[in-house]
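pipeline: protein-struct stage 2 | run 1193 | Leucine-rich repeat-containing protein 14
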Amino acid sequence: MHQKATATLLELAARSLLSNEPAAIRALEELPRDLFVPLFIAAFLGGHKKILTAMVRVWPFRCLHVGTLSVRESYYEIVEAVIDGLQIPPVQSPSSWGPKLRILDLRQDLDCETTCLETGTTFPFCFQCCIYSRHSILKLEEARHRVRCLGIVNSESELQSAQEPMELLVDLSLSDTLRAKQFLSFLRSKVEQSFGSLHLCCRDLQIDKMSAHRSILQFLDLGYLSEVTTLLARTIHLDSLSLYNIAFKSCQRKNFRTFLNRLGRLDNLQKLILSFFHLTDQLHKLLRVLPPQLDTLCLPLCGLSDRDVTVLSQSSQATHLRLLNLSDNQIFSEDYEPFQTLLEKVSGTLQHLEMSNCLITDSALSAVLPALSQCSHLRVLSFAFNPITMPVLTSLLQHLASSMELKHVVYPVPVHCYEQWNFRGSLDPRKLAEVQAQVKAMLQAVQRDDMTWTTCAE
């Protein structure tokens, strides 16, 4: 029979089973292996939580991946139902289908199948499993296999084999909503119930909008950051961490020191985004624990000082950065030399630079312009909302025209376009249009039609 027709018949059979949930659950122990994947897909997309939980308990394959599956409503409920199916601590299923579920991958990966092709290895193998941590299921199984090959068997090893390790891969994007907090608590309880047998692997963590209620900032400082550090302690090979709108005002408290300690253990971290962290004159504490290979650093609204910029220019991370965002920090209010030095250090790698609303004046921009021109790999430059005049903007364009990799520039509206600079409602649209026309003409004159210059007002 044609493969596509076979798939269609399996999908029809799955939908037929879902029409009677109690019967479908009872039939799972005798369900043919070929029906598990189409039934799981149909149940996931249809939001059949009870069937999902029951299916995971008797899943006849070594791994299960959400892959391209997605639901717009009740996401947390669906994911929790899947996790609830994990046997914690893991136990042997009475079903006779051989290897049972050891790796549950809830990340939405477009290139991932629902299950991996099984091989003849003596321990579970999965192309998506964690391979970096010494606690990963792959390394634990390799160690156990070596013990068995050596013939070492005692009561301790028998006890360990009774609690087979399992792995849960998940990307987390948490807000300050009650439901998000409930999900975090749910995850923590599952890890704690496993007594070490469940390995939580998170490679992308975002925590957003934590400062929505300023009246509880102190509570968030002492409470939720400890939640973050607890979660960081349980995540492995995190390469991207984003913490937005956490109004953390003290770098002296125990929770911040704990946060730095956890952060320092993320040896593979490449991307760090923090905003609303009060880091004035404290950036050295953060940089001290970050890996030198960090290539993305975004610190908007962190109260950075020129001293912090000096520290950054002297750090081991400076010569590796490809994306740097220091917007909304008044780093030019006193001295521009630290930033000039920083540009010299990042000139060999920097591709994306944002320094909007940093109080960059004509004199400061003119001073750092030679160093900026040396950033030969720069592709994106954004320095909007800075008090720049048209002559200096013209000079900047002429200097940067020779940077052939630079394709996109977001520039500030010159101060003469405002009745009162950067004051809402005082922008003169006619003057702005004249500036835009001049910029376009200058780009054509230097034959850089491939370069786009825009303002935030466009």
